[in-house]
Amino acid sequence: MQQIKVAVDAVVFGYEPEQGISVLLIKRKYEPYQKQWALPGGLVLNEESLETAVRRELKEEAGITVSYLEQLYSFGEPDRDPRNRVVSVTYFGLVRPGQHHLSAQTDAEDAEWFNIKKLPKLAFDHKEILAVALKRLRGKLAYEPIGFELLDKKFPFSDLEHLYQILLDHDIDRRNFKKKIISYGFLEELEEVVQKKAGRPARLYQFNKKKYFELKESGYNFDLFY
Amino acid sequence: MQQIKVAVDAVVFGYEPEQGISVLLIKRKYEPYQKQWALPGGLVLNEESLETAVRRELKEEAGITVSYLEQLYSFGEPDRDPRNRVVSVTYFGLVRPGQHHLSAQTDAEDAEWFNIKKLPKLAFDHKEILAVALKRLRGKLAYEPIGFELLDKKFPFSDLEHLYQILLDHDIDRRNFKKKIISYGFLEELEEVVQKKAGRPARLYQFNKKKYFELKESGYNFDLFY
DNA sequence: CCAAAAGTGTTGTTGTTACACCCATGC
DNA sequence: GCATGGGTGTAACAACAACACTTTTGG
Fold it and tell me: Which of A46, A71, A85 lies at the smallest CB-CB distance from B74?
């Protein structure tokens, strides 16, 4: 008789121009790994789909709704949970952190954003899961304009620049980067400007999802690597 | 109390210059979907890892050992199996079909290669799984030289050409294709030649895995799309 | 000598990279 | 008027795509 439980866990990334990339973690209320930080997640209910389960756990444990969610990988080593055998189907999510108040509920004692360069010790094999998610994040960024899921609806071009600079971990040429992005045609230049700190006010841009999906459906391959 | 079973299923592709791309299917011995064709797979045992489970099922149901295996995706809709709820972690495999005799055992009545253009009706949601696997196959082919897992150790260049032509589903320019592949430097030209049918005998080549992994580790990105 | 498949270079076009100065604003 | 960040074009170079004839073998 098979004795395996099925869980879901989520690696949700957020970005803020000031702080860089962060990941959503919750503090466990119960054993095992009580009071340790972990990825939000939990057992799947009998009647719900995997994706529904992830969204429910994110709502319950951290009070957030993500704008982008896709399946990441399934982890199923026999010893990854000290209680029973648990196979965890993990998901990869993106969100604009500024738009959500975190609020821990049910089996989380706390929920917080952690900069990916200053991570605490994580429960279970969650460090490994996070490593896979980061690899996916960098990979996707290079081939799809997912940066837009991480930025505000309207944003100055420099936010996009900074985001790529942080994720690629090297400087980019501002002129070339802008040329390339603009050439794809899925960015709309707005009339509005905004002034963040010092310097000349910046034009605001917004992502045109419709144009993006048209291009994508027609088989276009974005190459934003640089 | 959670009542979910965990299974694994495998989509294994093979290639033969004469027949094109084929996928390994087994004929189910028992209900449900008795005597229908399905992907090899089955429930995971309590103590084995997911990958071990796939390899065991491939051995048991079809008598083969694959040369390449990676996780594909997990399918977990509540109604995908008429008996219980089953979450299936699926794997993607590649093999040189000529090197293995298929032999059905345990809960398979038969095991056969099916050309991907002439598929029978499949059990469960296996048609959907296969569609995801084909997408992965094409995607991987474009960015990694996985073609070599599907060819014999030593092969004439034209086999590689044909493989890409079939998978990309359009003609490729032989000169440009060869130039690009050779430029990566992970192919070794051998002294041997072979004559398949008519025409001039062909030089044999072999894949240099060591060089390939060196290149890959150094962050190189292959682009074999054409 | 004909049919079949293998082998092989050049050129125009396109995309990529490198690079530096001026502009608009707040203080 | 100076500090801060925003905005912009060109030229050299590399990669890609298009293109057709010759070579070697078997029958």
Answer: A71
Beta bridge mates, B8? B42, B89
Alpha carbons within 13 angstroms on the beta-carbon side of residue B143 total: 13
What SS3 class is residue B58? helix
- Is the pLDDT confidence value at A198 over 90? no
CB proximity list for A114: less than 8 A, separation 6 or greater: A22, A23, A24, A25, A37, A120
Nearest C-alpha neighbor of B3 from the set B101, B92, B78, B102: B78
Residue B76, chain A, CB below 8 Å: the answer is yes
The C-alpha atoms of residue A217 and residue B23 are separated, in whole angstroms, by 27
Q: What span, in angstroms and rounded, lies between the C-alpha atoms of B27 and A44?
A: 31
Closest CA to B100 of B55, B158, B59: B59
Domains recognised in chain A with CATH numbers: 5-141 (3.90.79.10), 146-217 (1.10.10.10)
Q: Is B85 part of the contact surface with chain A (CB cutoff 8 Å)?
A: yes
Cross-chain Cβ contact A44/B73 below 8 Å:
no
Mean pLDDT by 10 residues, chain B (226 residues): 97 91 96 96 98 97 95 98 96 89 85 95 98 94 88 94 92 95 94 88 95 85 79
On strand D, nucleotides with any atom < 7 Å from a protein CB are 3-10, 16-20, 23-27
**Interface probe with A: pick from B1, B2, B129, most Cβ of A within 10 Å:** B2
Distance CA B186, CA B212 (A): 5
